[in-house]
Amino acid sequence: MGSKGNQSSSPHVIMIGSPVVSHCVPALLFVRKLNALGINVTFINAESIITKLEAIEAGLLGGENGRLRVVVLPNGEGYTPNDNVLVLTGKAEERTSGYTKDCVKGLMESSQDWAPPCCALLDTFADWALKITKPLMPSYIMWTAGAAPLSMLLQAPVLKAQGIIPMKASEAEKLKPVEFPCIPPLHPLDFIDTILEPGPGHDRLLVLSNNILELASGVLVNTVYELESSVFDALNKHYQVGAPSSKFESILSVGPLLPLSVNTKEESAGGVALKRDPVLEWLGKQPHASVLYISFGSVSTLSASQLIELGLGLEASEQRFIWVVRPPHDLSPEGKSELHQYLPPGFTDRIKDRGVIVTGWAPQVQILEHPATGGFFTHCGWSSVIESISGNVPMLAWPIQAEQRMNSSWLVDVAGAALKVRKGFEDFATREQVEDAVRLLMCKDKGQALRSNVSRLYELLHKGAAESGSTSRNIKAFTEKLHRWNDRAYSA
């Protein structure tokens, strides 16, 4: 069995990333955990994504004691720097599968001074590579959302067979919640959005679901068991995980995969250096729990009219805030390019004493863990949800795409840790709705109730992330599998 100090005989894992940078970051943080336990990892991705990762978090690709190697693939025919995430994920197999196959074959034949790979980890949107890796070695999907959306995705072929999907959103609003085997009933408009409506996105997620069900050896989930214990228990029972007849060897919680440790609030084993930012200097001068942080992630954007309403609502609330602003998605190529041109006229001057506008990267984890932060206005992407819980910060929920409506419903209706900004299934929020929601969270008794509820989630998260918690046990169990597979490869 490989030891921590002997790299040549240590287990060697292939990690195949996807074109989604926000997926690659937690995946690489998990790689760091494996590195710290003596596991060698080769990370494979296209040049464009490697370049972006180096610009955002160069330390992620630095490796732990030389146990991480990076293979940079060509971007593939037809790639342009202007490709958006939907194009990149939709074209990934076509553009890079040949390079990936050659790379994996080469690693199997010679990994220099490392043992041949004994396992493959694949990002959710690199599921197509299961056809390359599964015949050669156990292959796990790295699922960066929560366990509940995973459960919903795995039921997609059943929903299709029952004629429930696809459907138009206008039809879905009239329907009742749909029963699921592993999660509570779910209204169709709370489904993962691209599964619901017909189109390329619907077809792609059906392929993803079938690839996981038919080819994956298991799934590693960016959450802690304690937050979603009922879902994990139901998944293990429904799919008979670990049984000889099951295709899944394990479905394991391995999160939270955050740049900072939720236990020590110091640099994690990954050692990712997060530089101090001017925003944090400003935040340090604000009263306790007085600042609302607003960010809709690295992909989602709002319309021009919605940006104006949001800005006016924030202004009317009279609360301190940090707002990460991105250009509206309906901005024409020759449209307004300066910040003041797509925010309300005079807005930046009027709020300069109590608000900070950020147009680039923001140190989100540090902001959410700062004592001056009292609320998070979020799109409910899973990484953001976990980061907010880690910081013990209640939320205003504004889901936009993917599984975010599922996350929002859980936060609002089950956990009681967030408020909805928009009514029902509306897509647009007025300035009055924004003002009311912000005041309710930051100034009223309702906000205190949300803080109490998020504190319970905080305790569960920390319990699972502790040294003796479920995540440590699961990662230990997974590394033990890696050693067994590695020994088997050696004996063969």
What report would you give on this structure?
Its EC number is 2.4.1.-. Keywords: Glycosyltransferase, Transferase. This protein has 492 residues and is α/β, with parallel strands linked by helices. Helices cover 42% and strands 13% of the residues. Helix 12 (304-317) packs across helix 17 (431-443) and helix 17 packs across helix 18 (445-465). The radius of gyration is 22 Å and the shape is globular.
Question: What top-tier CATH class of the largest domain fits best?
Answer: Alpha Beta
Shape-level CATH architecture of the largest domain: 3-Layer(aba) Sandwich
What is the strand arrangement across the widest sheet? 3-2-1-4-5-6-7
| Whole-number mean pLDDT | 90
Portion in strands: 5-15%
Query: Could you tell me the number of beta strands?
Result: 13
Distance between the termini: 14 Å
Helix share bin: 40-55%
- The coarse overall form would be globular
Task: Classify the secondary structure makeup into a structural class.
Answer: alpha/beta
Radius of gyration: 22 Å
CATH topology of the largest domain: Rossmann fold
Could you name the CATH homologous superfamily of the largest domain? Glycogen Phosphorylase B
Number of helices: 19
**Low-confidence stretches at least 5 residues in length (pLDDT < 50)?**
261-275
Q: Total domains, how many?
A: 2
Characterize the main sheet: 7 strands, parallel
GO molecular function, one term: UDP-glycosyltransferase activity
Enzyme class: transferase
Family: Belongs to the UDP-glycosyltransferase family.
EC number: 2.4.1.-
